[in-house]
């Protein structure tokens, strides 16, 4: 929601009027010097939308403010051209409405386009949420990273490394939406006050590492006939891509990282296909390169890669993980009911590489149970289990 500065206004005053923590307003207006506001300058207020209201007989601005649980000042700020003593029946005025509902609906076949539209809705409503592009997929789809908070502890979550594990994307984004709601409404989640987490951490989220693969599983092959034929050939002649984990090149992105890649490659398929082919070399695929570059740039304290299925959390690699990893995974296990397993005996995964090169905690979290892709009917149960892990990743 946008408002415009009047003589004597300050960001602190807006914080009081709209009951939004001042740091969230400051972070939503990084282009503004709060010490030198100009009359008429646009200020973004997070966590609100504008709705229209038609004035009825007997209405006054004060009565309307009372009806919508607002201050008169809040109404005046979004109606700068309205004379409160000369309201006309039928006149349209603006009402600032606090957002108390989720903006995204994760319980659907969650394609890349749906995700990108939802991200834009979140950024528009919560402008302290930063969105940047870390790279592109094989087919040129931009890979977004979302950042929230400015704290010193840098935490990273990602989803949909594997195409038919796409439910991880709306699960992660639903948590992000709930985090934003809790911050702007000054509510708790699972009994936790979230504003201290916002101040202490910087959360990085890459919700869909493998967008081409996700769309292949949900929508089928692209219209390009030669690519269509190639994919069906790699898929053992089948046009059913529900078992597809790889990217559109038939490369398994979670077998792409230089952490004993040769050992993993030696026992896996040697040609492109639905799963487990690690490519001709580590980091050959643009999606894996983007994730590696991001990880080097951000210098994360810990990373959690969300997959499905099994209700387990893998937390080690070649005994290179620090002691802190076991402390963290025990808390993740406690809050979710998931089993903590040190190693799956595999190599070349994203969390393997992170542990190997940084000697910091890295985790692969296998959400839910069943056969991939997990049915959307499991969404609520999976989210409730995962929510504790998302929170613990920030507060631990």
Compact description:
Helices cover 37% and strands 18% of the residues. With 396 residues, it is α/β, with parallel strands linked by helices.
The biggest beta sheet reads: 8 strands, mixed
Enumerate how many helices there are, as a single number: 14
Number of strands: 14
Series of H and E elements: EHHEEHHEHEEEHEEHEHHHHEEHEHEH
* Shape field: elongated
Strand content: 15-25%
Poorly predicted residue ranges: none
Task: Specify Rg, calculated over alpha carbons.
Answer: 24 Å
Mean pLDDT, to the nearest integer, reads: 97
**Fraction in helix:** 25-40%
Characterization of this structure:
This protein is an alpha/beta fold and 396 residues long. It contains 14 helices and 14 strands. The protein has helices at 11-18, 22-28, 61-67, 72-78, 112-125, 168-185, 195-200, 211-219, 225-234, 261-267, 286-298, 323-336, 350-358, 379-395, and strands at 2-4, 42-44, 48-54, 92-98, 130-136, 142-148, 153-159, 188-189, 192-193, 201-206, 302-308, 312-314, 339-341, 362-367. The strands form four sheets. An eight-stranded mixed beta sheet has the order 5-6-10-7-11-14-12-13, with helices on both faces. It has a two-stranded antiparallel ribbon with strand order 1-2. Strand 12 (312-314), helix 12 and strand 13 form a beta-alpha-beta unit. Helix 12 (323-336) packs antiparallel against helix 14. The model has no long low-confidence stretch (mean pLDDT 97).
